[in-house]
Design goal:
The complex is a heterotetramer of chains A (568), B (284), C (162) and D (407). Chain A is of the alpha/beta class and 568 residues long. Helix content of chain A is 30%, strand content 24%. Chain A folds into four domains: 131 residues, Rossmann fold, CATH 3.40.50; 185 residues, 3-Layer(bba) Sandwich (FAD/NAD(P)-binding domain), CATH 3.50.50.60; 144 residues, FAD/NAD(P)-binding domain (3-Layer(bba) Sandwich), CATH 3.50.50; 56 residues, 2-Layer Sandwich (Alpha-Beta Plaits). Chain A is built from 15 helices and 28 strands. In chain A, the strands form nine sheets. In chain A, strands 8-7-6-12-23 form a five-stranded parallel sheet, with helices on one face. Chain A has a five-stranded parallel sheet with strand order 14-21-15-16-17. In chain A, strands 2-1-3-4 form a four-stranded parallel sheet, with helices on both faces. In chain A, a hairpin with a 4-residue loop joins strand 19 and strand 20. Helices cover 37% and strands 10% of the residues of chain B. Chain B is globular, with a radius of gyration of 21 Å. Chain C has 162 residues and is of the alpha/beta class. Chain C is globular. Chain D has a five-stranded parallel sheet, covered by helices on one side. In chain D, strands 13-20-14-15-16 form a five-stranded parallel sheet. Chain D has a three-stranded antiparallel sheet with strand order 6-7-10, with no helix packed on it. In chain D, 53% of the residues are buried. The chains are: A alpha/beta (568), B alpha/beta (284), C alpha/beta (162), D alpha/beta (407). Chains in contact: A-B, A-C, A-D, B-C, C-D.
């Protein structure tokens, strides 16, 4: 490959921090008649504003001009130099920063001779990298200013309403016939003390009346294609099949309540009911009772479901308070292993339940409460861990508080969007600072589909997801390198040499972002890479048997040449 | 009825019933065995089973160059069948167009090939016989001895006789890449005989780390008689111990190296101690 | 005749006394930060190592490690993030598994697999990076010098270079 | 032109922790100009002071440093470090916010971190901003600096200017988001916890700093008293929290934080005995309970239910006595520990700055109640919560400010 790149090299003395250890003069002389170096200068410093101005003047803006900076590390002042040059019109891809300070001078003070040799090698490695580096072409698309929200529970309608406020068209798709998700099953939203019901009303109103919302009840997604900024989603709504084109997807499919199966003689004894059945009675005539017992952590926080579903404690507190309001002289006891009411609002609610007269007994996982009675519940026996004695509570009502578990078709939806799911079946998300983003750019998840949450948190997550979707679409041009929220610029996008590819599918199997796919091409299979999905990690390159897939910015030749230059 | 007659009968029936359009097997022409595609039922009289001849790559090329609806039968041994599984996992041909007639190898054939599983999944011809552990073979014992020094001496001495004829790569049923990395000057310097032991042989061996079906093709093809298959023994054992994975036996299961630890757990890597602690111990 | 060529060529490539040459493939998100921190704190480290920054440990090809050994490098370190801490959705799990599978092959031909050092324990603090590099050097020092390696060594290798 | 035209007036985000950073980035990406006011010398807040984060055990700065960098480089975000809010006064339809910026003697754009100023300083007032702060630079701590000027002429890039004066700027803002997070609270008023009576009775944030891998002990766990390895450590939960005398709320983060600290102690030296005194082990977030199971099941961390009655230094020998009621044996016991970590007394950072002209409305527990019309709040200062919840609430607050509507 004939290359006419002219590389200009600048070695920074860093006010003696580098030049005291590394003999820059000998390196400069060595580079003078290097075939690829046009000019090589030694400067006192590179990173101050005035130096960057000086530097930018000496670098022509032509596409062939390359810059090799022998200075400090990117994390030290290197970043400031490159950003400064970028502001003055020099493409950072044409700059190679060689770390002579943190990487060489400062860690080999006591051996200047070999430090100089190492610096020379590092410079040669930098030249090799600069020469061999190609550039992945950036893909630019016009993001669709529409968002698909799946699920019309509290999280879904909050996301939809928020998107409407941001001026984005929303396709609200829900499996059920009526919006509201789990809220339809309950009378009051726990904890009703903090204004959540008013928020839900406001959202329902916005979603119901805004022209920007297209609501498809009773529909089911059948196919998904595309990537961030340009998804094509096909779904069946009632009888007809529809296809929409959206820029981002917010999954708010929620979760379902787990039935206790045969635990605590449920279904066998009259009077043993679940929280949902109790809620149904609150919506109806209400329940006359003299003594009721709630049992927490039923079918959860145990061997086969090792997680805490977080909402059952606040919900039981709400139901206990409601029972006491309807039966003022009744006795309500909650048997629990830990009351999960973190923060201020939920802790106050816990205190409010105590003041309302709810009694709490702590039991241990290994000694669960026993339910006695022939057909009707008569007595509960439980070993009270605090007092160390067995308690006998006669009660005619036992409410089993059960957890939220993932929907049955969560696996199907995850398959459609290529999402990972954790061991419990909830959708996996990225790091702590990106708690609603999935591994696929443009697909966000919020509400109980991600992890069981109360309505108040689901609403917050809906708004946050709407804001993140808006941040993604709020531009006329979405470029593949700008998408990832992790960093402002993706390092490189994989490129396939279709001629060499044997279609073995290793890259398709290993890609953590499902960016590779096989396409039939005259009878044989060839791999293609979706620029939008690819994040440039390079997993595919290391499993491709004949190197037909490469990261242009760090191709195999570049690594090979750097290896050669390492100890030349 | 002897094994050969049984094979000829099965091939004839397959052709007559129109199950396949041709059967790939050996034929004896002027007393020399040749791979031959029997398309006429009568010719199956010339069908032979000996000697062992690896037909997997041949079958793939036949299927690739024949029309889409051409169905091929093949009389193939255990290693061929495993090789065909690996190739179909790599989308090199459509397995539906292949009709496998499994032939079990004899115990001494297994002894020669150092084969641990000398029988296909579905045995149509011959009986299952005992596999042979490569570590028992006395020549192999030197190459796989416990002391690294002797191992190195043997391997260095043997590999220094390599004339880089690429016979091992060409005969290996899995190697289908063109261009192949071993011909790229970046990985293996050109014009150097014997081939650079580390870069040529180890790169080739590692490319087959999770796909080698231990058919012995490389050892048979090597003109200077280097037991190349022994390079794979340690890796195949690691895969079997850590993941319970053997190449070519399960069409659905992808190589465990292509998925993360939550999907294909690997015991030594799972304990955080091994990786997380700074005092990373490497006595695997 | 081949036997003598092989061993004589390696005479000078055994360079028993010189410090071992190490190439470090450092993951940009963790190990490179550790290397930078070690620099900032001016921790004195052995000279003979060169860092090649990679986007993720999963970018390191086993062929590149083999290529490094074949060009006379004594030790290759691949340093990536925590298992579960990778920015690329567990890409480092597969890197760990693949390099784990390279070890038996290196051992088979007698190249001690401890020359391939993998640390997925985030050497992100300066003292951790320094400890990891120091320990790798100690381990390389007391490994037996590799006699019958490939016939290539660095200067012979330069023959075909531009 | 990449972003849509920015809305007319900027938004002030107070607090450069995870909540503040997320709110600023979300607003900037939505096209609104932001002024991020941080009282410390660098962004990162409490999370950057932590060693590890639960539930993934990552290093704390790992998810944070790209966000901090994005914040600093985003053209729509102006970051004011070493700055505090003086007054917020309501003018016609907007808020006039006066920001006091304390003098930053070392200019971070000129400091090349060569470190020559540190030996020159007689009172040891100069140090780096922490291993991974952005932008990387040295910093002179005003409280220790005697303005002697010895460091000024040592600096090669003349980045030090000790006669920089405090400045205050006035910003006309559309809205304010409080994201001031929390800080450690000295609970010596509650004598039964014995805080301050023994060097090895410390708060959890102090313990985190004392045993941090990037700290001076480089991750090794030693007693403050004699730098020897402790035999046993007690983690006291809800010390000062869920306590009507001090903080009635539950600080939400300390159960998991104690688990994390105990687990890292066990991982670094398995023979140290760790005991956690808890009332409710609140591990209810995403993957928290698995973390709890792995720690309790795996590495023998002992859980004792109940709050200790009294903690005091042992009179005759060294060590700390913890008096508690053992619910299993129903008896009162005293147990000797080498170190005691008090978890729970986390105060929202807002309460202190009551004197600012426009005192935001606080609820009974000193938390910023969200109901005031023009002031939005998110993160721990509004309701005790962990990193994930703070980041979500920050995005929600950013949304409400961007569309200009009550919380």
């Amino acid at each position: 490959m004939e290359d006419n790149k002219q590389t200009r090299c600048f070695l920074c003395e860093c006010y003696g921090e580098i030049s005291d250890v590394v003999d820059l003069e000998s390196i400069r002389k060595g580079l003078e008649h290097h075939p690829r170096i046009v000019s090589c200068e030694k400067v006192k410093s590179l990173c101050l504003e005035e130096n960057i101005d000086e530097l930018a003047k000496r670098i022509p803006l032509s596409p062939e001009s390359r810059v090799l900076l022998g200075a400090c590390s990117f994390l030290a002042r290197g970043d400031a130099i490159i950003t400064g040059l970028q502001k003055r019109g020099i493409d950072p891809k044409h700059i190679e920063l060689v770390d002579l300070r943190e990487g060489c001078a400062w860690i080999h003070r006591d051996d200047p001779a070999s430090a100089t040799k190492k610096a020379g090698d590092l410079i040669n490695m930098g030249i090799a990298a600069l020469v061999q580096r190609n550039y992945s072409e950036d893909l630019t698309i016009e993001p669709k200013q529409e968002v698909l929200v799946i699920g019309a529970g509290p999280a879904g309608i909050s996301a939809a309403a928020s998107l409407v406020k941001l001026g984005i068209t929303v396709h609200l798709l829900d499996r059920a016939k009526t919006p509201g998700g789990l809220l339809n099953l309950i009378k009051k939203i726990a904890p009703e003390t903090d204004g959540t019901p008013q928020h839900v009303e406001a959202f329902l109103y916005t979603v119901g009346n805004s022209p920007l919302v297209r609501y498809y009840p009773g529909s089911r997604i059948s196919a998904v294609r595309g990537s961030a900024g340009d998804f094509t989603v096909e779904f069946t709504s009632g009888s007809d099949v529809k296809s929409i084109n959206v820029g981002a997807v917010i999954i708010a499919t929620g979760a379902r309540v787990n039935l206790p199966g045969s635990l605590y003689r449920y279904k066998e004894l009259k009077g043993v009911i679940t929280g949902i059945e109790l809620e149904r009675s609150f919506k109806g005539p209400g329940m006359k009772v003299t003594s009721a017992v709630f049992i927490q952590c039923v079918g959860v926080r145990d061997a086969d479901r090792p997680y805490c579903s977080a909402i059952c404690c606040p919900v039981s507190l709400k139901q206990a308070i409601q029972l006491l309001e309807e039966n003022p002289d009744a006795e309500v006891t909650i048997l629990h292993r830990d009351i999960m009411c973190p923060g201020s609002v939920l802790e106050d609610y816990y205190r409010k339940a105590m003041e309302a007269g709810v009694r709490f007994v702590r039991y241990d996982q290994d000694t669960p409460p026993g339910i006695l009675g022939a057909e009707q519940v008569e007595e509960i026996r439980v070993y009270d861990v605090i007092t160390g004695r067995e308690r006998r509570i006669d009660a005619e009502l036992v409410v089993l508080s059960s957890p939220l578990i993932p929907h049955d078709d969560a696996a199907r939806v995850a398959e459609l969007f290529d999402l990972n799911r954790d061991i419990h079946g909830f959708y996996e998300v990225r790091s702590l600072m990106h708690p609603l983003e999935t591994t696929k750019d443009g697909v966000l998840v919020c509400g109980s589909a991600r992890w069981p949450v109360l309505a108040r948190t689901a609403i917050l997550q809906g708004e946050a997801a709407a804001m993140k979707a808006f941040a993604l679409l709020n531009t006329d041009q979405l470029t593949a390198t700008q998408i990832s929220q992790f960093k402002e610029r993706k390092f490189s996008l994989a490129l396939v040499d279709r001629q060499a590819c044997t279609g073995c599918g290793n890259c398709v199997a290993i890609c953590p972002y499902d960016a590779c796919s096989l396409e039939a091409d005259q009878g044989a299979y060839k791999s293609t890479v979706s620029q939008m999905r690819c994040t440039g990690c390079g997993s595919c390159v290391s499993v491709c048997p004949n190197g037909s897939i490469q990261l242009p910015e760090q191709n195999a030749l570049l690594i090979g040449e750097m290896l050669k230059a390492a100890f030349s | 009825m002897s094994l050969v007659e049984d094979a000829r009968l099965k091939a004839k029936n397959a052709l007559e019933e129109g199950l396949v359009d041709g059967v790939l097997a050996l034929a004896r022409v002027e007393d020399e065995p040749y791979p031959y595609v029997f398309e006429v039922a009568a010719e199956t009289g010339m069908l032979e089973l000996e000697p062992k001849w690896l037909l997997a790559k041949l079958a793939m090329n036949i299927l690739r160059s024949s029309p889409q609806d051409y169905r091929l039968g093949i009389i193939c041994r255990g290693c061929d069948e495993r090789a065909l599984n690996e190739l179909s996992k790599r989308n090199q041909f459509d397995p539906a167009r292949l009709h496998v007639i499994g032939l079990a190898c004899s115990a001494e054939q297994a002894r020669i090939c150092l084969c641990t599983k000398p029988y296909p999944a579905s045995i149509a011809l011959g009986e299952k016989s005992e596999g042979f552990d490569p570590r028992e073979d006395e020549r192999a014992r030197m190459f796989l001895s416990d002391d690294p020094g002797t191992r190195m001496q043997h391997w260095a001495a043997e590999l220094s006789r390599c004339i880089k004829c690429y016979g091992c790569r060409n005969s290996c049923p899995i190697c289908v890449c063109e261009p192949c990395k071993l011909e790229d000057d970046l990985w293996v310097r050109r014009g150097e005989i014997p081939a650079d032991m580390v870069s040529y042989h180890l790169i080739r061996a590692f490319h087959l780390s999770d796909t080698c079906v231990a058919c012995g093709g490389c050892t048979d093809a090597c003109p200077v008689n280097i037991p190349l298959m022994l390079l794979q023994v340690a890796m195949r054992e690691t895969l079997a111990n850590n993941y319970g994975y053997e190449a070519g036996t399960d069409l659905e299961r992808l190589s465990p190296v292509l998925s993360d630890l939550t999907i294909e757990p690997c015991p030594p890597l799972m304990e955080p101690g091994w990786l997380d602690s700074l005092k990373v111990n490497h006595e695997t | 005749m081949t036997q003598e060529i092989l061993l004589s060529d390696h005479a000078e490539s055994t360079r028993h006394n010189a410090a071992p040459k190490v190439v470090v493939f450092a993951c940009k998100w963790c190990a490179l930060i550790g290397a930078d921190a070690a620099g900032k704190n001016k921790v004195q480290l052995p000279v003979n190592f060169r860092v090649i920054p990679v986007e993720c440990a999963s970018r390191v090809e086993a062929d590149a490690v083999i290529r490094a050994f074949s060009s006379g490098i004594d030790g290759v370190a691949v340093m990536g993030c925590h298992l579960g801490g990778c920015r690329y959705n567990n890409a480092n799990h597969r890197a760990a598994k693949r390099l784990e599978l390279l070890r038996p092959l290196l051992d088979t031909v007698g190249i001690d697999s401890r020359r391939l050092f993998t640390s997925f324990g985030t050497a992100h603090e300066h003292h951790q990076f320094a400890d990891v590099i120091g320990e790798f050097y100690r381990r390389l020092q007391d490994l037996p010098p590799v006699q019958a390696w490939s016939r290539s060594n660095m200067n012979d290798y330069r023959r075909g270079d531009t | 032109m990449s972003a849509k035209p920015p809305h007319m007036k900027p938004v002030i985000v107070i607090g450069g922790g995870v909540a503040g950073i997320t709110a600023s980035l979300d607003l900037a990406r939505a096209g609104t100009a932001v002024h991020l006011v941080e009282k410390g010398p660098a962004l990162g807040g409490q999370v950057s002071a932590l060693d590890k984060l639960y539930p993934t055990d990552h290093c704390a700065f790992c998810p944070l440093w790209t966000e901090v960098r994005n914040c600093m480089l985003n053209p729509l975000i102006t970051v004011h470090t070493c700055a505090e809010i003086n007054t917020i006064t309501k003018t016609d339809g907007a808020l006039k916010v006066v920001v006091d910026e304390h003098p930053r003697y070392i200019d971070e754009n000129r400091c090349i971190s060569c470190g020559r100023c540190v030996p020159a300083c007689g009172v040891d007032a100069i140090s780096t901003l922490g291993a991974h702060a952005y932008p990387p630079s040295y910093y002179i701590y005003r409280e220790k600096c005697t303005l002697c000027g010895k460091c000024v002429d040592v600096c090669p890039t003349s980045a030090i200017d000790i006669n920089r004066k405090a400045a205050s700027s006035e910003i006309l803002a559309r809205d304010v988001i409080w994201a001031t997070g929390f800080q450690d609270y000295d609970i010596s008023p509650l004598e039964e916890y014995g805080y301050g009576t023994h060097p090895d009775i410390m708060s959890s944030l102090q313990f985190e700093e004392w045993t941090a891998e990037s700290g001076l002990n480089r991750g090794t766990v030693v007693k403050k008293q004699d730098n020897k390895q402790p035999a046993s450590i007690a983690f006291i939960q809800c010390a000062g929290a869920r306590d009507l005398r001090l903080f009635p709320y539950c600080s939400a983060v300390c159960c998991m934080h104690a688990l994390k600290q105990a687990q890292w102690v066990k991982r670094r030296n398995p023979q140290v005995q760790c005991v956690i005194f808890f009332t409710d082990m609140r591990a209810e977030g995403r993957h928290y309970y698995e973390y709890y199971l792995r720690e309790i099941g795996g590495s023998s961390i002992e859980l004792l239910r109940g709050r200790p009655g009294l903690i005091y230094p042992m009179p005759d020998e060294d060590g700390i006595a913890v008096k508690y009621e053992n619910t299993i044996t129903q008896s009162r016991q005293i147990r000797k520990f080498d170190m005691v970590v008090l978890n729970g007394a986390l105060q929202p950072s807002l309460a202190k700055s009551k004197d600012s002209g426009y005192s935001p409305i606080l609820d009974t527990e000193g938390l910023l109640s969200g109901i005031s019309p023009t002031i939005k709040s998110c993160g721990f200062c509004r309701e005790p919560m962990d990193v994930e919840a703070s980041v979500v609430q920050a995005s929600s607050a950013a949304l409400r400010v961007h569309v200009g509507e009550e919380q």
